[in-house]
Design goal:
Blueprint: H1 9-17, E1 27-31, H2 36-49, E2 54-57, E3 69-71, E4 74-75, H3 78-97, H4 107-121, E5 126-130, E6 147-150, H5 158-161, H6 165-173, E7 182-184, H7 189-202, E8 206-208, E9 214-221, E10 224-230, E11 236-240, H8 247-261, H9 266-275, E12 283-286, E13 290-294, H10 299-312, E14 318-322, H11 330-337, E15 343-346, H12 357-364, E16 371-373, H13 377-387, E17 393-397, H14 400-411
Parallel strand pairs: 1-5, 1-6, 2-5, 6-7, 7-8, 13-17, 14-15, 14-17, 15-16
Antiparallel strand pairs: 2-3, 3-4, 9-10, 10-11, 12-13
Helix pairs in contact: 1-4, 2-8, 2-9, 3-4, 6-7, 10-11
């Protein structure tokens, strides 16, 4: 069996046979390492507040694959998902029979084609498309958007994107296109240099979140931030964020700049920021004890989570439930989070490429004196709940896949007791 290589040839061939559904709707394209999902959610909410019929394509999903494809804030219904699947599958079989494809399209390529096809059928007026991995060779990079957005770049997926910041940044910069303005979130100097050089080569307009759009009068309550955003030519709007954490201020400025470039009224931008939802990121799912879910799977995400806990929950005992995938910077993530915990419970994700709890213990045991190993998330949650007081915090983190399992487990109906 042939192994699928990274590239745009298969997805382009597939979409061409489908009649190029990606051309049926104007879009916003978002790449980056951290914050791209939150930024995408804010941009989509702003477009929806402007009374536009929106499509939102993101990955990965937490519980159900339907979450990846949303119309006006709602997951794609099962019947529509099946219809899109059958359309794409039929075309793939035709192209394989004609030997027009080198091998079967990847899972992500197929779902991307399904999303574009469904958006066309649903009459989407504006779509927000999140890059899956990298940018240059990502299957979503067949679109020519209204604006390209790059959120903060950090280290993640180094095996595929490279271990140098410049190499990773070059992959993200691959979504930039001639004639398409861009928005850049604040970046490390080496990342900023690569992005800005590529923008100059293309001769495109760039708005910088943090300078062209900046936050003033920043305040917070209960972990949720508000500020006054000042933009070019004296533009000004009030931002009250529905997503928790100081890092969301940067994401919001990035979303504001993108929405401003596509002409969304500031009243709709303000409404969208108040209404945006992005599950699995500092999501509170229970009280007494407080249970938080956060998919901090790389060093930058872990640092942001650590800042949030330090600023907003000082002095509260933390029961930290952690699992990770093999391709993640486990040592750095543990170093940022484990010292904040009263107790660390290592567990596993139900996927083959997850690190086993025992293997995790050998890697991270020096980061905390009290580490327990559990063989399932349900066991870890039971142990934490049995020991935590009502004022403690239970945090499930380290992998979005673990967060998805936690959401499914915690929202599942409990069996009746005779």
């Amino acid at each position: 069996m042939k192994t699928a290589k990274l590239g745009l040839e298969r997805i382009s061939t597939l979409l061409d046979r489908l009649g190029r559904p990606q051309d049926a709707f104007p879009s916003v394209h978002i790449a980056g390492t951290n914050g791209k999902g939150s930024t995408a959610a804010m941009v989509e909410a702003g477009l929806r507040a402007a009374r536009l019929r929106t499509g939102l394509y993101t990955s990965p999903h937490l519980v159900r694959i339907n979450e990846r494809v949303r119309i006006s804030g709602e997951d794609i219904p099962d019947a529509d998902f099946c219809a899109a699947f059958h359309s794409v599958h039929a075309v793939v079989e035709q192209l394989l029979a004609e030997e027009r494809l080198d091998c079967h399209p990847t899972y992500f390529e197929c779902v991307t084609a399904m999303a574009f096809e469904h958006f066309r059928r649903a009459g989407v007026e504006r779509a927000v498309i999140e890059v899956g991995l990298g940018g240059r060779l990502d299957a979503t990079n067949v679109i020519t958007p209204l604006v390209a957005v790059v959120t903060p770049i950090d280290f993640d997926h180094e095996a595929l994107l490279g271990k140098a910041a410049a190499a990773i940044s070059a992959e993200k910069a691959g979504i930039l296109k001639p004639g398409v303005p861009a928005v850049f979130a604040p970046q490390r100097p080496e990342a900023a240099e690569v992005l800005e050089a590529r923008a100059r080569e293309l001769g495109i307009r760039v708005l910088q979140a943090g300078t062209d759009w900046r936050a003033e009068q920043v305040a917070h309550q209960g972990g949720y931030y508000r500020f006054v955003a000042h933009g070019p030519s004296g533009a000004r709007l009030r931002a009250e964020l529905s997503l928790a954490g100081e890092h969301q201020v940067t994401n919001a400025l990035t979303a504001i700049a993108a929405l401003d470039l596509v002409g969304v009224p500031h009243t709709a931008v303000e409404q969208g920021l108040r209404q945006a939802r992005w599950p699995g990121r500092l999501e509170q799912v229970a009280e007494a004890p407080l249970i938080l879910l956060d998919g901090a799977h790389n060093p930058a995400g872990a640092r942001a989570l650590a800042r949030f806990l330090t600023v907003h929950y000082p002095g509260r005992r933390l029961w930290l439930i952690y699992a990770a995938m093999r391709d993640k910077a486990v040592e750095e993530v543990a170093g940022a989070l484990f010292p904040l915990a009263h107790q660390v419970l290592l567990t596993r994700v139900s996927l083959l490429r997850a690190v086993s709890p025992r293997a995790l213990e050998t890697i991270v045991s020096h980061h905390h004196p009290h580490i327990q190993v559990t063989e399932s998330l349900s066991e870890a949650l039971d142990r934490a709940r049995a020991s935590a007081s009502e004022t403690d915090i239970i945090l499930v983190t380290g992998s979005l896949f673990l967060v998805g399992e936690a959401k499914a487990l915690l929202h599942a109906p409990r069996p009746a007791v005779d």
